[in-house]
TrEMBL record:
Protein name: Ribonuclease J
Short name of any one Pfam family annotated for the protein: RMMBL
Domain Metallo-beta-lactamase: 21-219
KW Ligase (keyword) present: no
Organism: Bradyrhizobium australiense
Species classification: Bacteria, Pseudomonadati, Pseudomonadota, Alphaproteobacteria, Hyphomicrobiales
Length: 556
C-alpha cells in the first residue's frame, strides 16, 4: 500500500526577522516533492554593518536545485519585503508568478523602472479566486493591510489545508479595498484547517490595530488647521493613506503635489487599477512654487529617512522644486522601521531646527499598523481553529509571544521554527524533520554576493580601521631601488604625541626591508608579508586599531 503524501513547510526567509519573506510548501515523499513558493522579498542593508549593500535577499540554492519541481511563485501582496527580490532572483528559478491585479500592475511598473529587467510572466488571479498549481489549489482570500489587494492564501492539498495569512489585520472600515473576509475564514475553519502559518509582527501589542478611517480623520483635522505649507510623508504603497491625504487636502482647498518617483509610480498604478477613482488629479513637483503656502500640500517619499528620497532633500534644502520654511508643517504618517531610527531622527531634528512643525505618531494618530495585535490574532485562531499554528513574520520575541498566545487559545500543536527548518505538517505528528540550505544574498551594486562575500567583509573592516597601501621596488639583489610609496586611507594624520603617522610607517617599511636577510628579500611574497605585519603592528601601536594593509613588491 502506497504511503500518503507528506505536506511540508519551510521558511527560507522572514522567520526570526522582519522582511525578506520566502516560504515554501512541499507535497510528496522524501525522494520526490512538488514545491510551491509564497512571496520572494527583500530586507534593506544597514550602512553601519553592511556598507554599500542596498538589498538583502533569501538564499534560494534549494529552490534552484528543485526548479523542475517548483509549481509556481504566489504573491500575497506587493510590499518590497514580499516581492522585492523577484527581479533579481527570478532568472535562477524561471517559474510562473501568480498575483492579483494591483500587485501585478505594481510589479510591471517596477520592472519598467529597471534598465534591463528579465521578461517575467505574471498570471493575474482575481481577488477571491483560485489557481491550480500541480497538487496545490491556492485560494486568494482578501485581508485588510496597508496596501491594496493583500491576501491570505488557503493552500488546499490532499494532505489538508494550510492558511498562510500573509500580512493582515482586522479593519472593518478600510478606506480602500475589502475588509478581512471573516465569512470565508470561518468557512475554512468549519471545513477543517490543518495549519495556520501566521503574521507575528504585532504579537507583543495588546488590543486591536486602529482603523485607517481614524487616521484619515486625524490627517483631515491637522491639514485643516495648518497655516503654511504642509508636507506629508508616508509609505508610497499605502494607497489608502494617499487617498486620505488627498481628501484632507481637498477639504482644506489645497492642491496635492506628488514628490518622489516611488510615490509617482504607485499613484499611477492606483489610478490605472481604479483605487483612486473620484480622487482629484495631483500635480507634479514643478507646480509646487506656483501655489500660495496655504493652498498646497506636498505628498513625499522619504518616511524612513532615505538620504536620496524627497523629504531628506527638502529637509536639507537641496530639493530643486520643493522648499519648506518656518511655520510650515511636516506630518510623518508612518512608523519608523527598526534600524532607520537614526536617519529619521536626523531629518526630524533638522526640520525642527528650521522652525518647521513636525507631527508624528507619538503625538497624533497619523499612522496605524497594517498588522494584527493580540485580540486580532485570537479572532483569527477562533475563526480558523487550526490543528497546528506556526508563527512567522517576526523577530524571536514576536514569534515567542504569538506561540504563547496560540497555546493559551487552545491550538493543539504550536511549532516555532527557524529559516531553513523543514516542518512536516501531516499526516501524523507534526515536527521539524530536516534542515534545508538557507541564508542571505547581498545585492552589492549590480552584483549578487553571498553573505561571506570578501568585498562586504573588507568594506566593513575598512570602515572601522582604514587601509594602508605600500609599494616597494627592489633590485634583483634585494636592495631598495627607490623610496617606498606609502598611502594611508582613513587613518589619522598624527598620533597622540603629534608625530606624523605616514612618516612612522615609512620608516618602519624601510627598516623592515633592510632588516630582512638578503635571500628573503628576493622572495617578493615573503617580503610583502613581513612588511604587512610590521605596518599593521606599528599603526596599532600608534593608533590602537589595525587597518587592512596591502603591500605590492616589484622587482626591477
Amino acid at each position: 500500500m502506497a504511503r500518503p503524501d507528506e505536506l511540508t513547510f519551510a521558511p527560507l526567509g522572514g522567520v526570526g526577522e522582519i522582511g525578506m519573506n520566502l516560504s515554501i510548501y512541499g507535497l510528496g515523499n522524501r525522494h520526490q516533492r512538488s514545491w510551491l513558493a509564497v512571496d520572494l522579498g527583500v530586507s534593506f542593508g544597514d550602512e553601519e554593518h553592511l556598507p554599500g549593500i542596498d538589498l538583502i535577499m533569501p538564499d534560494i540554492r534549494f529552490l534552484e536545485k528543485e526548479r523542475d519541481n517548483l509549481m509556481g511563485l504566489v504573491l500575497t501582496h506587493a510590499h518590497e519585503d514580499h516581492f522585492g527580490a523577484i527581479i533579481d532572483l527570478w532568472p535562477k528559478l524561471q517559474c510562473k508568478v501568480y498575483a492579483t491585479q494591483f500587485s501585478a500592475a505594481l510589479f510591471e511598473a517596477k520592472c519598467a523602472a529597471e534598465r534591463n529587467p528579465p521578461k517575467i510572466p505574471v498570471t493575474v488571479v482575481p481577488s477571491g479566486g483560485r489557481v491550480e498549481l500541480g497538487p496545490f489549489t491556492v485560494e486568494f482570500i482578501p485581508v485588510a493591510h496597508s496596501i491594496p489587494e493583500s491576501h491570505a492564501l488557503a493552500i488546499h492539498t490532499s494532505a489538508g489545508t494550510v492558511l498562510h495569512t500573509g500580512d493582515w489585520k482586522i479593519d472593518p472600515t478600510p478606506i480602500i479595498g475589502l475588509p478581512t473576509d471573516e465569512r470565508r475564514l470561518r468557512e475554512l475553519g468549519d471545513a477543517g484547517v490543518l495549519a495556520l502559518v501566521g503574521d507575528s509582527t504585532n504579537a507583543v501589542r495588546d488590543g486591536r490595530s486602529p482603523s485607517e478611517t481614524e487616521v484619515a480623520a486625524t490627517i483631515k483635522k491637522l491639514v485643516g488647521a495648518a497655516k503654511g505649507r504642509v508636507a506629508v510623508t508616508t509609505f508610497a504603497s499605502n494607497v489608502a493613506r494617499v487617498k486620505a491625504v488627498a481628501d484632507a487636502a481637498k477639504a482644506a482647498d489645497r492642491e496635492v503635489v506628488v514628490v518622489g518617483r516611488a510615490m509617482e509610480r504607485v499613484v499611477q498604478v492606483a489610478r490605472e487599477t481604479g483605487y483612486l477613482d473620484g480622487v482629484q488629479n495631483f500635480r507634479s513637483a514643478d507646480y509646487y512654487g506656483h501655489f500660495p503656502p496655504d493652498k498646497v500640500l506636498a505628498l513625499c517619499t522619504g518616511s524612513q529617512g532615505e538620504p536620496r528620497a524627497a523629504l531628506a532633500r527638502i529637509a536639507n534644502n537641496d530639493h530643486p522644486q520643493v522648499t519648506l520654511n518656518k511655520g510650515d508643517s511636516v506630518i510623518f504618517s508612518s512608523r519608523t522601521i527598526p534600524g532607520n531610527e537614526k536617519a529619521v531622527g536626523g531629518i526630524i531634528n533638522g526640520l525642527v531646527v528650521q522652525g518647521i512643525e513636525v507631527i508624528t505618531d507619538r503625538t497624533d494618530l497619523v499612522h496605524v499598523s497594517g498588522h494584527p495585535r493580540r485580540d486580532e490574532l485570537r479572532d483569527m485562531i477562533s475563526w480558523v481553529r487550526p490543528q497546528i499554528l506556526i508563527p512567522v513574520h517576526g523577530e524571536a520575541l514576536h514569534l515567542s509571544e504569538h506561540a504563547k498566545l496560540a497555546r493559551a487559545a487552545g491550538v493543539p500543536k504550536v511549532l516555532t521554527c527557524r529559516n531553513g527548518d523543514l516542518v512536516k505538517l501531516g499526516p501524523g505528528d507534526p515536527g521539524i524533520i530536516d534542515e534545508l540550505p538557507a541564508g542571505r544574498i547581498y545585492k552589492d551594486g549590480a552584483i549578487l554576493e553571498d553573505s561571506k562575500s570578501r568585498a562586504v567583509v573588507e568594506r566593513r573592516r575598512m570602515g572601522f580601521a582604514g587601509c594602508a597601501f605600500v609599494a616597494i621596488a627592489l633590485t634583483d639583489k634585494g636592495e631598495l631601488a627607490d623610496d617606498p610609496e606609502v598611502d594611508l586611507v582613513g587613518i589619522p594624520e598624527k598620533n597622540t604625541a603629534g608625530e606624523i603617522i605616514d612618516e612612522i610607517v615609512f620608516d618602519m617599511v624601510v627598516s623592515t626591508v633592510e632588516g630582512l636577510p638578503r635571500a628573503r628579500r628576493r622572495d617578493a611574497d615573503a617580503t610583502a608579508e613581513s612588511v604587512r605585519r610590521a605596518v599593521r603592528a606599528v599603526i596599532a601601536e600608534n593608533w590602537g586599531k589595525k587597518p587592512i594593509c596591502l603591500v605590492h613588491v616589484l622587482t626591477v
